[in-house]
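call fold(seq) -> tokens
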Amino acid sequence: MELMSDPALGERFAESAHQILADLVRGGAALGWVEPPPRDEVADLCDHIVDAVQAGDGALRAAYLDRRLVGLGYWLRYARPTHRPHADLEKIAVDAGTHGRGVGRALTTALIADARRAGIEVLTLDARADNDNALHLYRSLGFIEYGRLPDFVAVGERRYDKVFCMLDLRQQG
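ret:
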């Protein structure tokens, strides 16, 4: 893994992110959409994330393979004043063609490091209970489950538990 900056890649980021998210949702991925998100919604989301990063209230990581976006993830600091020391790991999305190659682990590890540097005390996330690979990854990185809402996520007639996890960065130095 190599960190790099390339303005040309940034210009295509929202479009590339849309493609990954839309393809994953079409395949049934648990990313919060039932149907693939519209392009403008993903573009607005990207703008919101970039604004948060510039304000010191978030982090965004992207993974590229041969100049092609293959994964992205981000966290956002909680807005409520009493929750400001904490952030929510909002999304990790990896192109289906690169699953199993460590991209999700690399993105999540980098985002945890970013959270530490930003002074985040507790990093939270939620996941659909049937998202076994993601939950296994999060547990392997030290996240613990702190709650569950049974049958909370509705996808058509199917219902899934919503699992809440946290990583207490205060306990890890």
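The radius of gyration is 16 Å.
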